[in-house]
Amino acid sequence: MGGLGKSTLAQLVYNDKKVQKHFDLVAWVCVSEDFDMFKVTKTILEVVTSSTSDIQDLNRLQLQLKEKLMGKKFLLVLDDVWNRNYPECEILSNPFKSGAQGSRIIVTTRDVDVALAMRAFEIHHLKELQDEDCWKLFARHAFLHDANSYMHSHQFEELGRQIVEKCKGLPLAIKTIGALLRSKVDVSDWDEVLNSEIWSFSNEILPALRLSYRHLPSYIKRCFAYCSIFPKDHPFKKHELVLLWMAEGFLHETKYKTMEAVGNYYFGTLVSRSLFQKSNEDELCFVMHDLINDLAKFVSGEFTFRLEVDSRSHQNVNKTRHVSYARDEYENFKRFETLQEAKQLRTFLALKSASRNCFYISKKLLRDLLPMLSCLRVLNLSNYRELCELPESIGKITQLRYLDISHTALKRLPDSLCKLYNLQTLKLSNCGKLETLPRDMQKLVNLRHLDLTQTPCIMEMPIHMGKLKCLQTLTKFMVSKRCGCSIRELGKLANLRGALSILGLENVESFTDAEGACLRNKMDLKELALNWKKGSNTEISESQRDVLNGLQPHRNLKSLTINDYMGGSFPNWVGDHSFPYVTSIDLENCKYCCSLPALGQLLSLQNLSIVGFDGIVVVGEEFYGSTGSSSIKPFGALKFLKFEQMLNWEKWSSFGEENEGGAYHRLEKLYIRRCSKLTGDLPLHLPSLGILEITDCPKMLASLPRATPTCQLELTNCREDILREMPIHVTKELTIGGFDAVDMGDFFSHMSLPVGGLPSTLNNCKKLGLPINLDYSCLEVLKLFDCDSLRSIPMDLFPNVKDMAIRSCTDLESLIVAEQHQHDLVALSSLTIEGCPNFVSFPRGGLHATNLGKLKIENCKSLRSLPDKMHMLLPSLSRFWISGCTNIETFPERGLPSSLNELGIWDCDKLVESRMGWSLQNLASLRELEIIGGSKSDVVSFPEKGLLPTNLIFLMISEFPNLTSFDKNGFENLTSLKSLYISYCDNLKCISKEGLQRLTSLKRLYICNCPKLERMPEEGLQHLTSLEDLAIINCPKLEYCMLEEGLQHLTSLSVLCIENCPLLTKRRKEKEWRHKFAHIPFKIVDEELID
């Protein structure tokens, strides 16, 4: 049953600080009703790594996720799972098995069969709340946590308990009805709710939720109903939703409130009524509970329609006003053709996709469909990264109020855009190729929000932007000397708020001109960036200081950035304590400033970055901004501090000995980089410091700060003396590099080492030694980079190391293990050896690393053999890459481990020569194989019969410059192969029919950069009955007739991509070409989607 509090209970566990400290990583992923294994796996990977992934293959995603979880104790919450398919659940959970013992997965679901499919060892069945708990929850929401509330009388309690009884123990219903009654101060209102006929309605919508909706004001009801446009569990941001409401005409300005302020109030009301709730995955987003989403869909009726992936509209769209759709990789006209009947359509909204980052949209869809939707108010075409132009017909949609074309390849906007006189919001962020804005932008008199974030090619603003009196958001303004583009245009925009970046300030000549921007009057401006042209020839003069002085913002500012300022000093307002809300300051490349502004008295300052101040010699008392009478300790709120590229900085004066411990007492991260003359002094008492990095400071003599034992410390390219000044209590994680002579025994002799206290990374230590008498057992990660004096590494010194990486250690010859400790490498899960030209041997008898999952060996030119007995001693090895090892001739006797899932062989000529002895057929788990020959490869025909294992699903063959053809029998047993990539084979002329006809499971075939390829036999293509995706790129000699008949038989083909193949595409505008390829839904020719 929904609404029992399953997600809430999981959230309490997930957010508990003790729980979070117990695990190496924690991740929350909302799975939802529409189960897509690829999408879910990709989302988990992106949450775990905190970065987006471009991988489009499930197997590769799982391998990468497995690697990221390897050896880590993790907590993963899979929220709202519906899929009960056991095989799919088993595949989904495969990467989780690589985690450390003690890892936990929490699954929330309404279906016990799902829990069984996920092989849950313990199932908690939530029941309805007991009566007294129901009452406590209700009272908490209805009486605002105030037990002594004037409403908390006997009469209210009696009615309230009767209402709670009708909620049948469901927390969601109780919470929602309590939030509704919070605003009802009259007994009669409570009585009306108690006796409402809605309690007796019998349908899938909870009566308590319907009651909550009924008691919303009418103007908020339509805002709530509009949210049915979002799928279940879809996250949305407040300010974005408010802009959509505004575009639909749901918000009306008052004498004292803007439309945005009204929308914020409506949004807050829906949050207070528990109809919106904070997202667990993104703290900036909100979601609706599934049952509340059902309510929104119920009340919106036929006016809202959601078009899912792989579906088309069969609904009668005559009444439809709002359409959203799950974005697919390729969008063509056919998917949306029924919308031609939706004459009153107001919303055409592309929703963000979690599974892909790049999308195509056909010109026909834009050219033919959009002009028919003349009532559109909202149009979202963002993230179509190949969208390079908008049709001129966009100007005919005169009711349009919201246009989002961000993250596209647009180079220019049509002039007709300026006919959209009702436009309120125009989003152009991350349009990296956009060069100009339409010259008549000043005609968009109702424009309120113009987002130009990350548009580096826009070098000039249209004239007279100051006429856009309604403008509130303008993220970027380019100042020029052209008439109508001066900084005074900003002064006419009295309502600017949010973030503003001003560029081209070298074109402002005086205080008067700068003051004309009226920044001091813009009280809602929170983030300000002031930018001069980098490398400008502007003379250093007092006028520059006057210009900056004239740009003083309002005291409500929160973030300030100043780049490439050409003045010799800062005006007094920079750092003045009258700016109480500033939390972040970034000062960069102010090369002529001889002193820093007095920033120490900014009470809220948390983040400070100072980069490229060539004129600074001493950071002294002026930096702290303190006076004798001041009782305020400087930088009392600062958490992040960075000094970088301060070429002449020599000394950092402390804040007075008598005040030691007062300044920086909350500082958590300190970075000092590329300050070549800095000798000292550093603040000594930093009780909150968590990260300290000192890099490229070769003259640093000062003692290091006294930090907590949990501090992460990195010292690179500094004097050896600084190591001896290290505090006795060494850090949790230590990285040292660039020290020509480091004796580890001497280094650690005076130190008390906590768990993990030894260096996890050693860089550029030319004379490093590793004494065997030290205890290295606490070490879990070891990275040795550029440590040239190391000739051998005794691996048994590090019995608990999980991740070992060795790079560019030019004198390293061997890895060794004492015979009595051969079985001590059980912790090792990842080993990388790169760029060690003299490395020749692994431990005698092989690597006894039973948990090693990933092995990478790259550019070890002298290595002649791989570890012995790999097939037996590395039973967990799943990923093995070998690259640039030109003297390795064979794999070990009896081959590679049967556990191997992914194998990559790059630029290993001698190894490829012995390929018939690889015994890949014995690798039952091998799924992915990449063979990249390299520029010296002399292979002429490939692959030979019997070379490749039958269980492969992914095969890449690349960089065989002398390859002329594929062995006709080389692919004959690859009946499981799904993806085949062939690239950079300069002399490949043909692919025989025998080479293709056995690939009956092939779904993706990519042929790229084969300049002499002339023939692909149609007889071979006809047998690719499972082929879905075919890409041919940079094959200029391949002729159309070689593909024509073969492609017509590929009934499963859904995507055909042809790029830079002129002989293939020269007839694409002819009717015959379109007719013969009409069965292929998506055809991309030279980056254009063709209908």
Automatic annotation (TrEMBL):
Residues 1-144 form the NB-ARC domain. The keyword Cell inner membrane does not apply. Residues 487-612 form the R13L1/DRL21-like LRR repeat region domain. It comes from the Eukaryota. Keywords: Leucine-rich repeat, Plant defense, Repeat. Residues 229-296 form the Disease resistance protein winged helix domain. PANTHER family: DISEASE RESISTANCE RPP13-LIKE PROTEIN 1, PLANT BROAD-SPECTRUM MILDEW RESISTANCE PROTEIN RPW8. This is Disease resistance protein At3g14460. The gene is LOC108996772.
